[in-house]
Every structure is written in structure tokens, then in C-alpha cells.
Amino acid sequence: MTPSVTSAHNPTIKMIRSLQEKKFRGETGLFVAEGGNVLARARAEGWEPEFLVSTEPVEPWGAARRLTVSSQLMALLSAQNNPSRVIGVFRQRWHEEKPAEGVWLALDSPRDPGNLGTMLRTADAVGATGVILAGQACDPWGVDCVRASMGSIFAMPVASMETSALIKLAKSWPGDAVGTHLEAAADYRRRYTRPVLLMMGSEGSGMSDELAAACRLLVRIPMAGAAQSLNVVWRRASCSTRSPECEASSLVSAERAAHTGSRFPRTAKPRQAGRCDNRIGSDRSSKRGQVLSRRLRIWEDSMRSLLKFVSTAAAAALSLAAFAANANADSRMFVAYLYGGNEVPGPGDADAFGIATVTFFASSKMCYSIILHNADAANAAHIHTGAAGVPGGPVVTLSVSTALPTRVSKCILVAPATVTAILANPQNFYVNVHTVNFSGGAARGQLQ
Predict the structure, then answer these.
(1) CB under 8 Å to 320, separation ≥6 — which residues?
(2) DSSP letter for each residue of 390-443
(3) Burial 177-186 (b: 16+ CB within 10 A, else e)
(4) Which of 119, 109, 99, 102 is nearest to 170 (CA)?
(5) Cis peptide upstream of residue 195 (ω within 30 degrees of 0)
(6) CB 123 within 8 A of CB 156
(7) Alpha-carbon span 298 to 284, nearest angstrom
(8) Bridge-partner residues for 443, per DSSP?
């Protein structure tokens, strides 16, 4: 019979709650994962929890100790706003062997656990062998990273080492040791020699000079805009308002929208500016209120530009990893910048933007990734025939996700005749993403 725990002072409950802190995760070697899909992935990958805590009885899972708790107690244990019905406590697994084959993604001092979880999920999606964390990396076993990985933490071997050890590994790597670098001259769309060690620097400072010098090859990810556009966005955003209260409120709302995939309003709402004015003791109809409203619109435009930059970089990074994972195959890659305002042909969602990458490998294998921001839920996607302004029928059907923002990556087989036609004249094809509110196409972009 599964024991029922009702007290927050129960030693096991207190221990599980303490795992929200890195200190106790390090001392115990344990971590928490929650949610049915995440735990299903753990089970599929052969992991067995030490504890299984649920709000209702669950099936046995190996030798895991099962506990049932109330919804109120589960809310104390869960790190989510809407607590899961079941959480598992697992023992951490570090990859101890020296990486030597396949495709390894090495991250030097990643600081954001959400970013790290996303990179784990990306590496899992494209078939990488494992992930190396070097230097002052954030904890991969923290709840934010585990949640962002969507269960990939259980599938990807994770190794840890000092930056000096990574430099030594790169210098002795038997295949291509590749680093992403802003000053690199080589485009990442190339053929790689296995085994591949793909290295990326931290979010803030990028790759160090020492690590870059150890790389056999430095590549860059071309962007649609100038590299300085990111600095311009941040400078413009930070200067958009000088009132601390208004700056904080607009920052929080914009970050929340960016995080959740919410659609930005087309114009700043007077109600928002008024509420902000009230906090600093101004009248809603005052000139200051109008200025703040205008600055909020500037902030929204800046965040759109930032999201466009980030979505492009994320899709390109995923494509880079996919290239490395298929480094032993001849391949050609195309990019389609997705927009709702200048799509081909016809009207679409004027607020939508994103990027699609399409890569063809041997034996008619095609891998693609789609990232679409500022749109409602996607329900279909295709590669169509058609040049600029000329409609055409779909020739390849692409799977999409209804989650917001739209993010999908997959590999499929395509008819050889279709592959031949696209490779011969890619400019005669475009990617079209359909959404619930734009059944004819929310955002489209020509292959290039």
C-alpha cells in the first residue's frame, strides 16, 4: 500500500523541497523532474526514480518509493504554477568517459538554465551523441533546465569539465573541432569530418580567445540583418522610457510575451500607459502619458526585432547541429525567412515572422526546422511551387506543433523527383505555414 503523507515537515518532503536549491542537489546527487511527458521519457530511456510522489496512486516503477500527497502539499513540492500530479526524484548521471566519437555539443559556461535545456532538446532532436558543459556552467539538473529540455535530459549523455580540459580535448580531437565565432569567415553550411566537436561560447561573452584558438575550424551563422542590430535593439529598448515604474512594467510584460509566445498588440493600449501614469502620479490624458504610450510602442517594435534576431539564431543553431549530426552525408541546405506581410502570394498574418531551414541529404532524406513567432497556433505547413507573386500547389507536407511559439524539427523522406526539382531551382519553391486564423497561410518565405 502506498504511504500517504500529509505534513510538510515530513523528512522526505523536506528533502525533496530542498532539491530546488543547487547546494542540496550537489550534496545528495538527486534532482526533481515533474510532468507526465517528462517522466514518460525518463521511463522510456531506462531511468528509475528514487522517489515517486503523486496526488493519486500510481503504478510501481522499479524500486522507487511511492508516496501520495494532497494537492496542497504537491503545490509546495512543484516548481510550476500549475503543479503536476506526479513528480519523480532521480539520481544524477554524469558521463564519465572521454568523448571520442559521434557528434558532441560543447557549451562553454552557459549561464541560463532555460537556454541549456533548449540546447539539450535541440541536440536530442538532431541526433547528437552528447553534450559537454565546460567552465562555470549552470546546473543541468535544476528544475528550469529539466523542464526546458522536455525530457531530453534523460536521453542525452552530459559530461562536465573545466574550460582548460575542453581546450585540451579540442586540440587532440581526431575529427573536426568546430567553433561558432562572430569573426569567422566560413559559413557553417559545409561538410564536416566525423567525429565532430561543436563548441559554442556563453550567452554574454561568447567564445574565449583560448578556446577559439584550439578550434580546427571557426564558422559563423549568417543573419538576415547586421550583427550590431542586437545592440541597437537593447539600446533602443533601454532608452525607451526613463520612468522606473513604467520601464519595469513594460519590461515584464514584454518579457512575459516573449517567453509565452503571446502576440504583441499592434499598438500600445492607452489603458496600459494610463496605469503606468497613475503609478507616478500623472493624469492619463497628460502629455507624459502620450509620451509613455509612444515609448511603449517603441519597446514593442524593439522586442519584435529582438525576437526576429533570436528566432533566426535559434533556427540556424539547430540547423548547424543537424549539419554536424549528418556530417558524413552530402547535403544542401536552404533557408526561408517567414513573414506575414510580404509572403508569396496573398495576405497573411502581418504580425507573424520566423524562419524555416530545409536540408537535403542522400537517399532523398530531408530534414527541416520551423520557428514561427507572434502567430496563433499552427495547423499545417507545406513546401509549395511558385515564384515571387505566383501561387502554386503543395509538393511536400511538413508536420507542425500547435504549441506557441511554433517550433518543430523533423526528418522525412521525399520523392526523388521532388528533391531533384527543388535542388535544380530552389527559387521556384516557398515554405507556407498555416495557422488556425489564417488557413490560407499565416507566414511564407521563398527558399534561398
Answers:
(1) 180, 188, 198, 219, 221
(2) ----EEEEE----SSSEEEEEEEE--HHHHHHHHH-GGGEEEEEEESS-TT-SE
(3) bbbbbeebee
(4) 99
(5) yes
(6) yes
(7) 19
(8) 433
Distance of CA 112 to the CA centre of its chain: 12
Residue 297 pLDDT greater than 70, yes or no: no
H/E stretch holding 72: helix 71-77
Determine contact, residues 148/344, Cβ cutoff 8 Å. no
Confidence of residue 284 (pLDDT cuts 50, 70, 90): very low
User: Each residue of 160-174: pLDDT tens digit?
Assistant: 999 999 999 999 999
Backbone phi, then psi, for 420, in 5-degree steps? -60, -40
Is 390:345 a contact under the CB 8 Å cutoff? yes
Query: How far is it, in rounded angstroms, from Cα 170 to Cα 23?
Result: 31
Which tens digit of pLDDT belongs to each residue from 67-117?
Answer: 999 989 998 988 877 888 999 999 999 999 888 888 899 999 988 888 888
Buried residues in 272-287 as b, exposed as e (16+ CB within 10 A): bbbebbeeeebebeee
SS3 446: strand
Are 338 and 390 within 8 A, CB to CB?
Answer: no
Distances (CA, A) of 407 to 118, 122, 441: 11, 11, 17
Q: Which of 321, 348, 319, 346 is nearest to 335 (CA)?
A: 319
Contacts of 384 (CB under 8 A, 6+ apart): 391, 392, 393, 394, 395, 429, 430, 431, 432, 444
| Measured distance CA(191)–CA(245) in Å, rounded | 51
Asked if 171 and 61 count as a contact pair (C-beta separation under 8 A), the reply is no
Residues 373, 262: Cα–Cα separation, whole Å:
9
Q: Which long-range contacts (CB under 8 A, 24 or more apart) does 73-78 make?
A: 73/5, 73/6, 73/8, 73/13, 76/8, 76/13, 76/17, 77/13, 77/16, 77/17, 77/32, 77/53, 78/34
Q: What angle, rounded to 10 degrees, do the helices at 113-125 and 287-325 form?
A: 40
3-state SS of 314-346 is HHHHHHHHHHHHCCCCCCEEEEEEEECCCCCCC
Contact indicator for 65, 15 with CB cutoff of 8 Å: no
